[in-house]
Amino acid sequence: MQIKLVACDLDGTLIDGIPILPEVKEFIVKIRQRGIKFVINSGRSLENILDILSQSKVSCPAGYPEAIISKHGVFIHYLKGQIYVEDEEWNKARQKELKILKQEIGWKSKLWEKIIEEKFKIYPVSKNIDYGVFAVSFKKNEEAEKIKKVLLKDSNFKYTTFLRNRFFLTAALSTTQKGSSLARVAEHFKIPPSQVLAIGDSQNDEHMLNGKYGFIPAAPSNAEDNIKQLVRSQKGFVASLPEGKGVIEIVSSLLNGSKS
User: Fold this and answer.
1) Which DSSP state fits 118?
2) Is the pTM of this model over 0.70?
3) DSSP state of 202
4) Please, which pLDDT band fits residue 259 given cuts at 50, 70 and 90?
5) CATH H superfamily, domain 5-73+177-255
6) Among 54, 154, 242, 258, which residue carries the largest CB count within 10 Å?
């Protein structure tokens, strides 16, 4: 199978805690020597991702990741020399949409908080709730999924959706997610979708795993069951190993022509 770009989610996929495992870093270097580009596609902020790379002793001179997609597909940055430069056209458009999203949510975020705690008696472990801001963490994935479904059913927004990464739930842009931003990156590098391998583990990765954009989908063994089912339904690869070791297994197997 011909693969020219590997796009990997961060938490629960490339890493399980910080730093990135040495064998995973070594593997990324090896596939890059074969002409394969490596991209991080995460819900984290760019600053947070760069901090993780720094703690993992991966610096810009290493030459990867060639691109970083952050905040669930909202922002795109490309490695240029010693720095990451933004995709200006893409990022400016998303910034305008984020302003609309903030107005769209408004103080409904406080209403959602009330619904969660008073109606459903579910109490978040942590929360960041303000005007136009809604991000909460629960004790269990099931709690986050239940509240996500409730909010999606009761909300009818143009620019706002709700994304879940395991037990973490956030209000995010509906106009772009991990799949559409990855399609933009692939186009930038002039790589067809059929040669792009997308690897993820949770609900917020569905957008790049569901076949809509034509990527090769894959998941590590620790991925949520519905994600593994989704990947298999798209004839993708589900690893027998978790997180970073699973990423190594996925890429190695597909390059060697194996399937799970």
Assistant:
1) I
2) yes
3) S
4) low
5) HAD superfamily/HAD-like (3.40.50.1000)
6) 242
